[in-house]
Amino acid sequence: MIRGWQVATSALAIVVMVATLGAEANAAQCGNGPGGFEAWKQQFSGEASAKGIGATAIAALMQTHYASATIAADRGQRSFGLSLEQFMAKRGSATIVARGRSLKQSQAALFASIQQRYGVPPGPLIAIWGMESGFGSQRGNQNMLSSIATLAYDCRRPEFFTDQLYAALKLVDRGTLSGSTRGSMHGEIGQTQFMPKNVLAYGTGNLDVAANALSSTANFLRAHGWRAGAGYQPGEPNFAAIEAWNAAGVYQKAIAIIGRQIDGQ
């Protein structure tokens, strides 16, 4: 015999299932080419509005274009497959070390202030700065919002970049970024190439200003377990914070090595 509460429970389960399927059907659908991008933007803008994204950011989203160059770059990240020696040569590690040592001296007061506040020494910060943007000389010239919207639409990693897109739209709403902000191929911005979610969480000002970008990077590392005075080579306590910055093993090891050479260890 089916009791009344069982019927009610079954009926409720059906309602929830139908509602879930309906939500999935109405959700913006990913794609693998430019053909569906405009329709996706229309759908996504409705979802974003419902989640509290304001008119300024929605208008900026609707002005985005499908970034073919971003898709090409996303499919062609071959340098992370190199050996450590090849990777460091390709990224110009010797140049980063030489310039980094000079900057450590000329900007000693800035780095001392950052280390006092966050516990992060100059070496790894300078290594990241040099690796990410050539000390600010290569910050990218792609439309940031178009790059991230394209990757949120693309079926390869939509969940990750959808989160980044919502963060970018919040930053546009706040006036921190705009629809014309320029960045690198995946939407990274500033002197140390922050993604929007990290700007929201760890940003300490305009990241096109080196002091702000370096402070923000130190803030990120501290938030990911950096301990003042501990080592940051593989196997040492602070290496995990470097791993949190970038998932590629060769990148992580290169930062540790370059940082050690800059710090004179």
Automatic annotation (TrEMBL):
GO biological process, one term: peptidoglycan catabolic process
Species of the source: Bradyrhizobium elkanii
GO molecular function, one term: peptidoglycan lytic transglycosylase activity
Record key words, sorted: Signal
Signal peptide limits: 1-27
UniProt cross-references to InterPro entries, sorted A to Z: Lysozyme-like_dom_sf, MltB-like, SLT_2
Residue span(s) of domain Transglycosylase SLT: 37-232
Protein name: Membrane-bound lytic murein transglycosylase B
